[in-house]
Amino acid sequence: MPELPEVEIVKQSLNKIAKYKTIYKVLVNNRSLRFRVPENFENFLRKRKIIKISRRSKYVIFELDFEKFLILHLGMSGTIHLLKNNFKKNTNISFYHKKDLPENHNHLIFFFNKFKIIYNDPRRFGFVKIIESRSDLNIYFSKLGPEPFDKNFNSNYLKRKFKYSIKNIKNSLLDQTLVSGIGNIYASEILFRSRIDPLKKVKYLSIGEIRKIITKTKIVLNYAIKKGGSSIRDFKNLQGAKGSYQKEFKVYARDNFSCPNKGCKSKIIKININQRATYYCKKCQN
DNA sequence: AAGAGGCCCTGATAGC
DNA sequence: TGCTATCAGGGCCTCT
Fold this sequence. Notes:
Radius of gyration: 20 Å
Distance between the termini: 28 Å
Order of helices and strands: HEHEEEEEEEHHHHHEE
Strand order of the largest sheet: 1-6-7-5
Strand content: 15-25%
Largest sheet: 4 strands, antiparallel
């Protein structure tokens, strides 16, 4: 489910709610997430204060007191839900009503004084991890490439990385060690707006094409954040409102629709690149 | 050592 | 309707 924009929305919502709050209890209903939730998870988090919530790539990072960290990855189908202990109207933040919570797969519940944060994940590709120090946190993320908005994600960097690589550009955009945070939806959207064939080998990209990819990446991701993320199946913000960026999709899941470029009479086609659906216009992207 | 493919898992949908 | 097959937004691991 979640790519960088969706995780960013989750992070922003969590900060509004849980910043400076203390977790007083954790309940683990199911330890079999992507990685097994450790036996000491509940005890470790009990009575810890959250200093702030941040994001790196598609990971949510809870910074706790005494320089400890909790990392959360939502995998393909993870969602976060807020539940107020005593639901009241007229509060300045709207909470999930209990009836809107999914019935199953509520694997983790974090109890706060006035609310609960619930981690739900049908496919269980998501995971949590405790990190014991800031240096361990840096080590954990050391293999990730730059954030798309980072100044290190620039044309010199990509030129160097692409010079001898025979990989296609679609797959390269999904490579988290090259640039972190882009997933399968936004990869197709970025390449359409850059007018580049997703199958093109990166060593053959011109400097102009490389610059275009960088610019369009920032534009697409930024705009998606502004629109509250994409809700293909089930992505909602923590208050249960859906994002709306899926309405802006030019190609993703739009096979057999007409190409949205003015004057182009081609249809959007769907192909598989390394087992992942890829959508593009053969006429505009080459 | 880069790059491709398998695999973890449940649920929604399509096709018969 | 009810079965089976396919596919879904991620990333780790293994093999070549």
